[in-house]
Design brief:
The protein is α+β, with helices and mostly antiparallel strands and about 425 residues long. The chain is built from twelve helices and 17 strands. It has a six-stranded mixed β-sheet with strand order 6-2-1-7-17-16, covered by helices on one side. A six-stranded antiparallel β-sheet has the order 10-11-12-13-9-14. A three-stranded antiparallel β-sheet has the order 3-5-4.
């Protein structure tokens, strides 16, 4: 039996490694050095482009919990990170060249992994399973192949609004109501502003600093139908009040009147633990987003689990297309892995590669595929990208908001996160033993 992995980024490397560990021969396709994306410079696999930081290492952080789980599955990226780490306080940072070089040599020198240097424009026909691990800058050739598989469920640009945790919204300053009472009573959380608050917000957003736009992101069609909120604001003092902040059809129960301006938060997942700032796609710097958007009284203590972005980021509409084992619903022998699935971040991409590789191997071996418990970070992310209740899908990185809440209330945040990590570790242990993993 043989599997083909398309793309040797972090996700593709992990997928190939998992397949090999389960006795499956692998053809690993990589278009470098024949061709490379605008962001890539090295010929190595698993190249870190933007940063050498793999985020927090402490176990009671979302990023740390994810890495701890990955290590329990024999992650090649975690193995390399331990070999190439550099001092960075509480973060896991690596020497980028050593990190990618270690993974490259390990894969190239494995007899069960056959490296094929070429751009793939059509799915290999000689493989029993295929894993598409094209990254956020997937080539035009493979993107067309993906489009034939996914139809219109393929996005080339990520124009996304921020997402906050439900528990961090101050409900004493917000209210639930659908506009004109259409739909469910709690479909939206409304964050009202009076005139003075709105005018202060308008001044802040029109003077806030935007993020640098890379050359390969400078496309006019990024903004068609999804204008950044700061651009809309720059067109006049009341443009936001006639757009995303329109207050019509709403009544603030605290005043009995329509708000001067109103931001609606829309449920992001079926559990109702995450909410999206409706219409607030933005290119502001992350620090500026937190400063400016926290000016809504109900968001004064908001925990942002994802900031708004507007950039090139090829990803598919996974909730409509993928199962929680990362296989394509229309063809269970085709798997996706990496940022193209809608996970966001280096290690999140790698983690999806672990699960795609593991599940592709199990399918070829005639075993049932697995989805880890929802209380684990890897399991929660797999469920998020395959949750059909998500209507306006946005890529997501590791955060505690995607996990179900604890059965007990713990006020201290550090203690609460430690309890969440303890639960994840215990549940993963039980699950692995039951599944023979």
């Amino acid at each position: 039996m043989k599997a083909a992995v398309i793309g040797a980024g972090l996700a593709g490397a992990e997928a190939a490694w998992q397949l090999k560990q389960h006795g499956i021969s692998v053809d690993l396709y990589e278009m470098k050095p024949e061709k490379r994306s605008p962001a890539h410079k090295s010929d190595n696999f698993a190249e870190l482009v933007c940063s050498n930081s793999l985020k927090a290492e402490r176990r009671n952080s979302a990023a740390g919990l994810l890495k701890a789980e990955m290590a329990r599955f024999g992650s090649i990226c975690m193995e390399s990170a331990m070999q190439s780490r550099v001092p960075a306080g509480g973060a896991l940072a690596v020497d980028r060249d050593l990190f990618s070089g270690y993974i490259t040599e390990k894969l190239k020198n494995d007899a069960d992994i056959h490296i094929i240097y070429k751009e793939v424009t059509a799915l290999p026909t000689d493989a029993d399973a295929v894993i598409l691990a094209a990254g956020p800058l997937a080539s035009d050739g493979i993107s067309e192949t993906i489009r034939t598989l996914c139809g219109e469920g393929l996005s080339f640009y990520d124009a996304a609004a921020p997402i906050v945790t439900a528990e961090s919204v101050d409900m004493s300053l917000a209210f639930t109501q659908s506009r004109y009472d259409r739909g469910g009573a709690d479909d939206y959380i409304n964050c009202p502003m009076n005139k003075a608050e709105y005018e202060a917000f308008y001044e802040a957003i029109t003077t806030a600093e935007s993020a640098e736009v890379h050359t390969f992101d400078k496309r006019k069609d990024v903004y068609e139908g999804c204008m950044p909120i700061e651009v809309l604001a720059s067109r006049g003092k009341d443009t936001m009040r006639y757009g995303p902040l329109k207050p019509v059809g709403l009544q603030d129960p605290r005043t009995g009147h329509r708000p001067w301006a109103n931001l609606q938060l829309r449920r992001e997942n079926s559990a109702g633990t995450l909410y999206n700032l409706v219409g607030f796609q933005t290119n502001l710097k992350f620090g500026e987003q937190k400063r400016v958007f926290s000016m809504f009284p109900a968001l004064h203590n908001a925990e942002f689990v994802r900031y708004g972005v507007m950039h090139r980021n090829t990803f598919i509409d996974s909730p409509r297309l993928l199962n929680s084992d990362f296989s394509l619903r229309s063809d269970p022998n085709i798997f996706f892995a990496g940022q193209i699935t809608g996970v966001e971040g280096y290690m999140e991409s790698a983690a999806s590669g672990i699960l795609a590789g593991l599940n592709a191997a199990r399918r070829l071996l005639g075993e049932a595929t697995v989805t880890l418990p929802e209380t684990t970070m890897m399991g929660a992310l797999a469920r998020y990208i395959s949750d059909e209740s998500v209507k306006h899908f946005q890529p997501m990185g590791a955060n505690f908001g995607v996990l179900p809440p604890l059965s007990e209330k713990i006020r201290d945040k550090a203690a609460r996160y430690t309890a969440i990590a303890d639960r994840a570790e215990a549940d993963l242990t039980v699950y692995k033993e039951a599944q023979g993993l």
